[in-house]
């Protein structure tokens, strides 16, 4: 199976036995340096593509959804389907995984607009960064370099760059500009160009 950067493709895979109530995890790539492994409550930034296991048809591609940026979410609190919460636990920044998710941990008997009822799912995931979750005051204080209890775009940029570089991933300025614009769009509720402690603790998310 190949990982093709920013392009969404249909993978080559087969599912011979569907495992009930269990997420099957295959590590595709593990970076040499794993400084922090993800756990419940951590803030994750990842690209992920979803496929129906029965025929390999794609129903979701984060690279083509909305602005195509990697998705931000808090792990283990229901912002993504249960199977992703389980399957992304213990990941390192820079790691790539393939998950096989049974219906009970996906969209269940109801399905959704693009997923038929009782569907086993396959996800390809690339994790870019993992950090303490948005409700952690410790994480806020680490980013708040001038200790004024508000985060500027410069402070957020430095934090993002540090997280990505820990995972061995370097990005150009336009990449960070786009992510920062998205973070401030969803978090800077009063539009003053800063994220206060209160705004930081009310982080909006894209739900899959």
Query: Any idea of the CATH topology of the largest domain?
Result: Chitinase A, domain 3
Strand content: 15-25%
Q: In this structure, how is the largest beta sheet organized? A: 6 strands, antiparallel
Give the overall average pLDDT: 83
What CATH architecture of the largest domain would you give?
Roll
Q: Can you tell me the CATH class of the largest domain?
A: Alpha Beta
Return Rg in Å.
17 Å
Query: What's the helical proportion of residues?
Result: 10-25%
Low-confidence stretches: 1-7, 12-20, 202-207
Number of helices: 5
Task: Provide the number of structural domains.
Answer: 2
GO cellular component, one term: endoplasmic reticulum
Pfam family, one: FKBP_C
GO molecular function: calcium ion binding; peptidyl-prolyl cis-trans isomerase activity
Organism: Conger conger (Conger eel)
């Amino acid at each position: 199976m190949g990982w093709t950067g920013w392009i969404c493709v249909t993978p080559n895979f087969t599912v011979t036995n569907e495992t009930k109530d269990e997420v099957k995890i295959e590590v595709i790539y593990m970076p040499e340096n794993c400084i922090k492994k993800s756990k419940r409550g951590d803030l994750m930034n990842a690209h992920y593509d979803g496929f129906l296991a029965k025929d390999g048809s794609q129903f979701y591609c984060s690279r083509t959804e909305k602005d195509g940026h990697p998705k931000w979410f808090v792990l283990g609190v229901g912002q993504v389907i249960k199977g992703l919460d389980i399957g992304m636990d213990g990941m390192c920044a820079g790691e790539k995984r393939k998950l096989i998710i049974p219906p009970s941990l996906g969209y269940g008997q109801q399905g959704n607009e693009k997923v038929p009822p009782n569907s086993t799912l396959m996800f390809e995931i690339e994790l870019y960064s993992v950090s303490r979750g948005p409700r952690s005051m410790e994480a806020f204080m680490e980013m708040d370099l001038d200790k004024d209890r508000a985060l500027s775009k410069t402070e957020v940029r430095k934090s993002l760059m540090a997280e990505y570089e820990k995972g061995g991933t370097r990005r150009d300025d336009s990449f960070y500009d786009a992510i920062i614009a998205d973070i401030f769009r969803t978090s800077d509720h009063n539009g003053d160009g800063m994220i206060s402690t209160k705004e930081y603790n009310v982080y909006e998310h894209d739900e899959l």
